[in-house]
Structure formats: structure tokens, C-alpha cells
Amino acid sequence: MTTRRQDPVAEEMRRKDEKPSISIRKARELALEHFNLRGPHPLDRIFRFGRQATRIIPLNSYDDRNFLFYRKRMVKFYNGVESGHPAFIDAQGRAMARCKAGGILTNAPVLAKDGKDVVFVELVRKDEGSGELVTRKHAMRVLEFIPGKVLGDIEQTDDLLVQAGELIGRVDEVFQNFDHIGFHRNHLWDLKHSLKLREFVGHIRGGSRKELVVRVLQEFEDKVLPLSGKLRESVIHNDANDQNILADEKGKEVIGILDWGDMVKSWLVCEIAIAMAYVMLNKEDILKDASSLLKGYCKRVQLRECEVKVLRTLIACRLACSSTMSAYSASKDPDNKYLLLTQEPGWKALEAFMALPEDVVSKTFARAATA
């Protein structure tokens, strides 16, 4: 059960070239045309909602173009690669709807005028090679806006991290016995395909960091792949980082999860490994917070011994992938500050993590998984 897709390396390179180019004015026109998305009544703008409710604000995004409309909807224009795979876009919509039905707060799709949750619109961009203007279809979706603060912007207490881990576990519970052909894809950000990262190592500046990534990938080949037949598979969110976990406005309670753009059917353990990798960024004690997250996750999903065994290497693979691909992406889109968000902190976390004795890391994670 697979979809016909290109090599994940080739697709990752195309994503940077086929990121949608669209102005606020054009986004407003298309949102009105297809979703009847309008701003507040003039009197409401003055007396009830304030200036923020009248604005359309561009949002940071890795490969797509996102806008916050009037603090009530998020409008997304997909990059050219995903737009060419409607099965995956449909799968995303079904996953969001399943989570919402399961009581998990997320920014679910809003239906367009035609009753569908996605439309395809023609956008014009300049081809980087020829310099000519080219037109292509991009998927467009409108999503519910959920007010709150992402985990990365607030103090990450032990209690909040346990809550976050438990939420991620709830998501994976909801995805039990759930599948869609769109999730069967060769995706570079799927940890199962970590060895594909070798083709991007040349973009890393600094010999010691290149050597570190090569070491991590060799460890993946030696220690994870031999156990692959024992690792459970499932549809996973695949990017439950601290920018995608949402807390309430006061930063006291984890309430939801965002951004379903990296979903894939992969090894179940990759879900929590990815979340643990990102929670290590900018931390002095990188094992402490990761262990709290793991503890919360295992309240919902009990990991097998073999899955706990590969956690260390999978975490390192995600840190290596994030840092390496940030370096590559920045070379393609140097004005996008979002692409630099995890690059240097990612390198520092990877260096610190791989410097720890392997037995210490393994015992720490084993205790957290059974706490």
C-alpha cells in the first residue's frame, strides 16, 4: 500500500523552489472567493475586537505560506510538492478530523463554499533557474485558529512537559487502527529514512559537525535498522515539537497540537523521539526535560524494550536532520528567519547529547518509560 512519489531527497530540494509566492492582497481575494472569509463588521472592529482583528498577518512556515486572518482563521497555501499529492492532503484533513472527534484540540479544516475542505488555486512565481514567470496549482486550506501559547514560548515546567507527553500519547492512541494511503510516502523527515540525510552532509559547515552527523547515521545503520522488524508501525504526527504543542493563554495547561504537515506512517517510537529531541534545545540538563516528556507519553503508550533501546539514536537522528536541513534550507531561503530557529541550538544539543555516556542515557530513559 504505497503512493507513487519521487525520491525524498529530490522532493526536499523541490520544496524550497516551489514554496508559494503570494501577497496578502491575493491571499485575501482567494479566501473571500473560495471560503467567504471576511473581516469583522466595521463597528465590531472598533468596539469589540480591536486592531488585531482587522489584520492579516503572515506567519512563519518551513515550506508553505500561512496567514492569520482576523485572529479567527489560519489560511494555508501548500508548497508545490505536497500540492502535487492530493492523497496526502486528504489524509491530513481526515487525521485532524479524527483527533477533533477524539477530544483533542487542533486547528481543524473549515469547509469551502463547495463543501470541500481544500481547494486548488493557481499562483504565479518566478522560476529560479530560468527567471521566467510560471503558473502552477497550489492546495489552499482554511483552518480554525486556536488562541494560546506554544510550549516553546513559555516556561517548560516538569508538570507541563508531562502534560505534553501525555497529549502526544493521546494522539497516538487516536491513530491506532487508523490508516490512509496518503501517509504511505517516502519522506525525508521520516526517521525510518535517516540514511537519506547523507546526501545533505556536504551542506554542513565545519568538519567536526560533519563527522558528528556521519557518526550518528552510522549508529542508526548499525543499531536501529537491525531492530526494524520489531518496531511497531503507526500513523504519527511526526513533528510534535515545542512550537506545535499548544498551552493556554496563561501557560499553565497543555491544550492542543498543531501543524500536521509532516505526517507519515512510520515506527511508533519515532513520535516521542522527535518530541524529546526538540525539548532538548537550549537546555543545560538535556535529559531532565526529555525524560519528563517520555514519562507523560508512557502514561498513554507503553513502549516495548526494543523501542526504548533505539530512543537515543533516533533522538540524535532528528537533531542531526533538523540542523543539517536548516543549513540547506537557509541557503535556499536566506531571508526566512524561521529556518534558523533550531539550527545552532540543534547543533549544541546534538553535541551535548552525543557526548553523554550511552549507558547513562539508556538507563535514564528506561526509568522514565516505566515511572
TrEMBL record:
<comment type="similarity">
    <text>Belongs to the aminoglycoside phosphotransferase family.</text>
</comment>
<protein>
    <recommendedName>
        <fullName>Hydroxylysine kinase</fullName>
        <ecNumber>2.7.1.81</ecNumber>
    </recommendedName>
</protein>
<dbReference type="GO" id="GO:0047992">
    <property type="term" value="F:hydroxylysine kinase activity"/>
</dbReference>
<dbReference type="Pfam" id="PF01636">
    <property type="entry name" value="APH"/>
</dbReference>
<feature type="region of interest" description="Disordered">
    <location>
        <begin position="1"/>
        <end position="20"/>
    </location>
</feature>
<dbReference type="InterPro" id="IPR050249">
    <property type="entry name" value="Pseudomonas-type_ThrB"/>
</dbReference>
<dbReference type="InterPro" id="IPR011009">
    <property type="entry name" value="Kinase-like_dom_sf"/>
</dbReference>
<comment type="function">
    <text>Catalyzes the GTP-dependent phosphorylation of 5-hydroxy-L-lysine.</text>
</comment>
<keyword id="KW-0418">Kinase</keyword>
<dbReference type="GO" id="GO:0005737">
    <property type="term" value="C:cytoplasm"/>
</dbReference>
<dbReference type="InterPro" id="IPR002575">
    <property type="entry name" value="Aminoglycoside_PTrfase"/>
</dbReference>
<keyword id="KW-0808">Transferase</keyword>
<keyword id="KW-0963">Cytoplasm</keyword>
<feature type="domain" description="Aminoglycoside phosphotransferase">
    <location>
        <begin position="111"/>
        <end position="279"/>
    </location>
</feature>
